[in-house]
Amino acid sequence: MSNMKLLEIKKLNKNFDNKKILTDINLSISSGKIVGLLGKNGAGKSTLIKLINDLLTPSSGEILVNGKEIGVESKKVISYLPERTYLNKQMKVSEVIELFRDFYQDFDEEKAIRLLKDLDLDINQSLTKMSKGMQEKVQLVLVMSRKADLYILDEPLGGVDPATRDYILDTILSNFNENASVIISTHLISDIERILDEVIFIDKGKIVLQSDADKLRNKEKSSIDEIFRRMFKC
Amino acid sequence: MELAFDNNIPIYIQLLEYMKIYLISGVFKCGEKLPSVREFATTFKVNPNTMQKALAELESMNLIYTERTNGKYVTKDQTVIDKLKDEYAVTLAKSYYQGMKRIGLGKADSIKYLEGIDE
Q1: What is the predicted pLDDT for the residue at A1?
Q2: Which of A74, A85, A125, A178 has the greatest number of CB atoms lying within 10 Å of its CB?
Q3: Per-residue pLDDT for B26 more than 50?
Q4: Residue ranges of chain A with pLDDT lower than 50?
Q5: pLDDT tens digit sequence for A76-109
């Protein structure tokens, strides 16, 4: 396993009709990293994430997880937090837990219940009765309670208050292990940059930069947020 | 112990500075066993890899050492810590004196102001 990359993407292209959404994406991510996928709205972050999760089909190119083409096997080892919920909001939290238990062999139910308890959440409550921030926390807890190789979180910080944001970052930090990696897509860079090992800048469907976060700060003598703003000034 | 970080400076360098101050001020004492990387990362709310990098740097400066199966310890050599403390004090003193010079005060005045500070 030593030299094998957890995720490897080679010459990936995605078109919708004749429009190029992603162009010649090449990247590799090894185990034990927290990686920020950073780009403006519409840069192609969510499309890339959906491709990695096998929810879209590439127009050309390869996506390998643990050295193998994505498919049934990769779904078992990727824990994905989508930008928009796929859960039926009429469900109670306890029912969502059952759903996860049935679907995912690597789901740690005890851990999920413990984390939800820390949040003072009543698992007999339905999602509709919860605030947006609460719903986001519930979903993050469920996603992070899987013992996956790769966690992919699409905009986990969207629309939540700063306290919730801190909670989300702590949950990510304390639940990832050295054998796993986390990809976090966001445009809210300053909130998240201190926990990142690596950053990937994506713009207009192309990867424009991949670097170690601290090396980039050192080289440019400024924050990732500042570097991003300078590079993509409107 | 939640630390404040400036996103403009590499996080591991800031962690390194915090750790040096903890060693100088005796939060972690000579020869004492240090928490694990993971415990540090959780307490400071930083990425474990970044914490590891800061600890590796401390180790290369001989301020801490690794006992193969037991984890990391603060150096048993007090003179290494004392030397670090001295270097730190010199840097702080220079920075203070630079500030005083900027507003037109000399060494004698700088000392006088220091003596006038209430503990």
Answers
A1: 45
A2: A74
A3: yes
A4: 1
A5: 999 999 988 878 889 999 999 999 999 999 999 9
pLDDT in tens, A127-136: 999 988 888 8
Three-state secondary structure readout of chain A: CCCCCCEEEEEEEEEECCEEEEEEEEEEECCCCEEEEECCCCCCHHHHHHHHCCCCCCCEEEEEECCEECCHHHHHHEEEECCCCCCCCCCEHHHHHHHHHHHCCCECHHHHHHHHHHCCCCCCCEHHHCCHHHHHHHHHHHHHCECCCEEEEECCCCCCCHHHHHHHHHHHHHHCCCCCEEEEEECCHHHHHHHCCEEEEEECCEEEEEEEHHHHHHHHCCCHHHHHHHHCCC
Q: Are B12 and A224 inside 8 Å of each other by CB?
A: no
Query: Was domain A7-231 assigned CATH 3.30.465.10?
Result: no
Domain boundaries, chain A: 7-231
Q: CA of B5, closest CA in chain A: separation in Å?
A: 8
Which one of B8, B45, B49 has the shortest CB-CB distance to A197? B49
For residue range B27-74, list pLDDT tens digits in order: 999 999 999 999 999 899 999 999 999 999 999 999 999 998 889 999
Chain B residue with minimal CA distance to A174?
A: B42
Chain A residues whose CB is inside 8 A of the B7 CB are 190, 193-194, 217, 223-226
- What residue in A sits closest to B37 (Cα-Cα)? A178
Determine how many CB atoms are found less than 10 A away from the CB of residue A95.
16
